[in-house]
Specification:
By secondary structure, the protein is of the alpha+beta class. Helices cover 53% and strands 9% of the residues. It has a five-stranded mixed beta sheet. β10 and β11 form a beta hairpin. α13 crosses α15 and α15 crosses α21. The N and C termini lie far apart (88 Å).
C-alpha cells in the first residue's frame, strides 16, 4: 500500500511540475509583450491552447476575422508561441529587410535542414548554383528539358488510344518531373538509374513525414518540441541517409572519370552542363582534382537540398495547374490548345526554344493564376533576427526571435492589387499587366520577394508550361467521374492536396 502511495505521489509531483512549467512558460510569454509596442494579440478563450485549434481547423476564417477586428498586423498564439501575421502593406518589409528577417531561420524553426543536410557548410552556394547555372543557362538546358519531359510522359502516361485512368495523379506527375530534374542536376551520365530517380521522387516526402508530429510539447516551450523531433538526428539517424548513399554510389564513378579526363585533356576537356559539375568546379570540394580528396558527403547533401527545393515546387505547381485546367475545361481548354497548336505549327513540330515558351502568354497567365490561388492562407514564415527588435513602418514592434508570417489572403483578395473579382479564377488577368509568372511583384507572393526570392522559379515555370503544352497537344483529360470541387480544402494554413483520378485519352488529331 505504501508503495502504491509513493507511486501516486510521484505522479502527482511530476504532473504538478509539468503544469507549473507550462503555466510559467505561458505567462512569461505574455508578460514579455509589454516592453514593446507589439501588434495586438487576438483574443482567445482557452489559455495555453490559444488559437491553435482554430488555426488548424479554420485558418481562413481566423485570419479574416482577426484582420477585420485588429487591422492588417496582429499576433496569434499557436502551439505555445506568439506568431505575428502581416498583411499587404507590411509584407514587403519582411521580404526585403534581409538584415532583420530570415526565411532560412524561419524555415529551420519547422524543419531543421542544417541537421538533415549537415555536410553542407555553405547553403548560399546552392542558391548561387541555381541562380547562375540553372536560371542563367536555361536557354542551353531547354532542349534536354523537353526531351526528358516527353520521355517521362511516354513512360508514365503513354499512348492512350483507349482511355487511361490514373487514380493517383500526384504520384504519376512526381515520377514524370523527377526525370528532367534529375537530368539537369546530376547530368546525362547517371540520371537514368532507377534507384537515383526513386531518390528524386521520394526524398522530399522522407523529410516532411518526419515532421508531421504535432508540436504538442511546444505548449510547454517550443525548445522542447525542437529537442524532441531532432533526437533521431542528433543520435545518428537521418531521413535522407538511404538517399545520400544512393547519390554517392551513383555520382562517385562519374566524378572520378570527370576529374581524370580534366587532368588528362586539360583545356581541351569540355565540362558537362549540370549542377554536379558546378560542385566539382569548387576547389574546396575537389582539392587538386584528386578523387581521393573529394568531399562526397558535401556534394550528396547539396544535391539533396536541390532535390528538396525543386521537386515539391514543380510537381505541386503542375498538379494544381492541370486540375485547374480540367475543372475549367469548357472555358479555357480549347483556347489554350489553339495557342499551343499555333506555336507548334510555327516550329514545324521541332523543339521549343525559350522564346517559344515565352510566347505562350495565355498559358503563362493561366499558370500564374493557378499558382496565385493555390498558395497557402499564411506562410513564407521569417524569423526576426534584429539585434533586439524590429519596428515596422506602421509603428508596431516585434522582438528578435519572433516568427512573422505573410497573410497571402490579404494580398490575393485585394481588388486594387489583383483587379476585378480577385477571389475568382480569371486565367488571363495577368495579361492585362504584361506580368509573366516569373516576375516578382507585390501582388504575387508564390516565389517570395527581395534578394532571397526563389532562384529556381524560371526553371519551375518553364517546366510546368512545357508539360502543360505537351499535354494540351497530345491528350484530352477529364476527371474520373469525380468533382474536383470549387472550394479548396486546407489543413491549417496549407492547401490540402487534390488527388481526384484523371482520365487521359489521346487526341484524334494526334492519332491521325
Amino acid at each position: 500500500m505504501e508503495k502504491i502511495i509513493e507511486i501516486l505521489l510521484g505522479d502527482i509531483y511530476i504532473q504538478s511540475f509539468i503544469l507549473g512549467l507550462t503555466l510559467a512558460a505561458f505567462f512569461s510569454k505574455l508578460s514579455g509583450r509589454t516592453r514593446l509596442n507589439e501588434p495586438p494579440l487576438v483574443y482567445y478563450r482557452f489559455p495555453i491552447i490559444g488559437h491553435t485549434w482554430s488555426f488548424l481547423t479554420d485558418c481562413d476564417r481566423l485570419i479574416l476575422e482577426s484582420q477585420e477586428k485588429y487591422g492588417e498586423t496582429f499576433s496569434l498564439y499557436v502551439f505555445g508561441q506568439i506568431m505575428t501575421i502581416v498583411g499587404k502593406e507590411t509584407t514587403h518589409e519582411v521580404l526585403r529587410k534581409d538584415q532583420d528577417f530570415s526565411f532560412r531561420e524561419g524555415f529551420r524553426n519547422r524543419v531543421p535542414m542544417h541537421l538533415i543536410f549537415k555536410h553542407v557548410t555553405n547553403p548560399e552556394k546552392n542558391t548561387k548554383i541555381v541562380r547562375d547555372y540553372i536560371a542563367g543557362k536555361l536557354k542551353h538546358l531547354i532542349s534536354r528539358l523537353q526531351k526528358n519531359i516527353l520521355k517521362a510522359m511516354d513512360l508514365y502516361i503513354g499512348e492512350c488510344v483507349e482511355p487511361k485512368v490514373i487514380l493517383d495523379p500526384r504520384k504519376t506527375f512526381t515520377c514524370i518531373i523527377a526525370i528532367p530534374v534529375a537530368n539537369i542536376i546530376v547530368g546525362e551520365d547517371c540520371y537514368n538509374n532507377e534507384d537515383l530517380l526513386e531518390t528524386f521522387r521520394d526524398l522530399t516526402f522522407s523529410i516532411i513525414k518526419m515532421f508531421w508530429i504535432p508540436p504538442i510539447l511546444s505548449f510547454i516551450h517550443p525548445w522542447l518540441h525542437q529537442q524532441f523531433v531532432t533526437i533521431p538526428l542528433r543520435f545518428g539517424w537521418n531521413p535522407i541517409s538511404k538517399h545520400r548513399k544512393i547519390i554517392i554510389n551513383r555520382i562517385k564513378p562519374i566524378i572520378e572519370k570527370r576529374l581524370y579526363d580534366k587532368k588528362r585533356l586539360g583545356e581541351a576537356w569540355v565540362a558537362p552542363l549540370d549542377a554536379l559539375q558546378c560542385f566539382l568546379d569548387d576547389p574546396e570540394i575537389t582539392p587538386d582534382l584528386d578523387p581521393n580528396l573529394v568531399n562526397y558527403d558535401c556534394i550528396a547533401d547539396a544535391i539533396g537540398g536541390l532535390i528538396f527545393a525543386a521537386m515539391g515546387t514543380t510537381s505541386n505547381g503542375f498538379t494544381h495547374a492541370l486540375y485547374d485546367l480540367v475543372e475549367r475545361k469548357h472555358r479555357y481548354w480549347q483556347e489554350l490548345y489553339q495557342e499551343a497548336q499555333e506555336i507548334n505549327k510555327q516550329r514545324n513540330g521541332n523543339e521549343l526554344t525559350t522564346d517559344d515558351i515565352a510566347r505562350m502568354i495565355k498559358l503563362d497567365s493561366f499558370v500564374k493564376e493557378s499558382l496565385r490561388l493555390s498558395s497557402p492562407i499564411a506562410g513564407l514564415s521569417h524569423k526576426c533576427i534584429s539585434k533586439s527588435y524590429y519596428t515596422f513602418a506602421n509603428g508596431y514592434q516585434v522582438p528578435s526571435g519572433r516568427i512573422v508570417s505573410v497573410n497571402y489572403r490579404d494580398t490575393n483578395n485585394d481588388e486594387e492589387l489583383q483587379g476585378q473579382n480577385p477571389t475568382e479564377f480569371r486565367a488571363y488577368r495577368h495579361l492585362e499587366h504584361n506580368s509573366p509568372a516569373t516576375k516578382l511583384e507585390r501582388n504575387f507572393l508564390t516565389f517570395g520577394g527581395g534578394k532571397h526570392a526563389c532562384p529556381g522559379r524560371a526553371l519551375a515555370v518553364n517546366e510546368i508550361k512545357v508539360l502543360l503544352h505537351k499535354v494540351l497537344l497530345k491528350y484530352n483529360v477529364r476527371t474520373d467521374n469525380e468533382e474536383i470541387g470549387p472550394k479548396r480544402r486546407y489543413f491549417g494554413p496549407l492547401p490540402a492536396p487534390i488527388n481526384v483520378g484523371l482520365v487521359f485519352e489521346t487526341r484524334e488529331e494526334t492519332i491521325n
